[in-house]
Each structure stands twice: as C-alpha cells, then as structure tokens.
C-alpha cells in the first residue's frame, strides 16, 4: 500500500480517528491469479497523535490500515505506519544550563508521513476466491498398432519330370 495524502502534526490539526486514502501498490495474487489489483482503493486511520511541544517534545503519528475495496468487496486489513519527529532534547539541556527559562520555548519537530509512503498490509479475513474452470485438455489416444504379421514365404515347388529310363535296344539279328 502507499499513502495518497500526507499526514503531519504541524498545525495541530490532525486528530485521532482521521481517515486517509491509500491504494494498492503491488497486486495480490493467489496461484498466479490477481485477486487484488494494483490501484485498488484502501482506507487507513490515525490511531495516535502527539503534537510537538515545549521542552523539546517531538510530534508523533501512529496509523493503521482498515480495509481495501477490490472486486466489489470490502476486505479488512492490518498493517501500520508511524513517524516521530526529532526531539530537541540536546537544545533543551544546553539552554537549561545557560538560561533555565529558554527550555520552555525549545520544541521538537513535527511528525510527517509524506504522500507515497509505503505500508505493508495483510488481509485480516478469509476471502472466498473463485477461478475460471480451466479448458479441458485434449486427450490424444494413439491408434492401436497393427499386429505384426510375419510375411508368409511363398515356396514354389517344382515337380521334377520323371526321368525316362533308357530303353535297351533290341539286339539285331
């Protein structure tokens, strides 16, 4: 998440319960499917404010995330961000040593959470998610292999003609 507005204790106008705008900075995915897209609007709330003050007291802001709106739903979130200004303690100590009344006028700095500050958020509720049914896979069934038939050998038999026996010639007389 990132803040869309800046928050500051400067001017002492920021109050506990003030709601501010956030947006999703990085898509949230489940199994490769985006369930909360980038840019989805979200809301945060200021939970604690301390304005800068006398004796070097710095300002302090604490916030929390409330929810994000995505796909027609409002989803509860958790996560927080805070900032503390710089204390003026060193100035107060130095001034108190020299002139005790001066510490009364030394203040710390205001707390600042600038526009675009990143906040890590977490989904705080079970959210039903449905995915489109995958297209059925084409199943390829191979044709059955033709049975292997051994080639039939053709045997040609040649019948031998009977061999005539020589006839003996009759004696001549």
UniProtKB/TrEMBL annotation:
Query: From what superkingdom does this record's organism come?
Result: Bacteria
Q: What is this protein called?
A: Uncharacterized protein
Q: To which species is this protein native?
A: Sphingosinicella soli
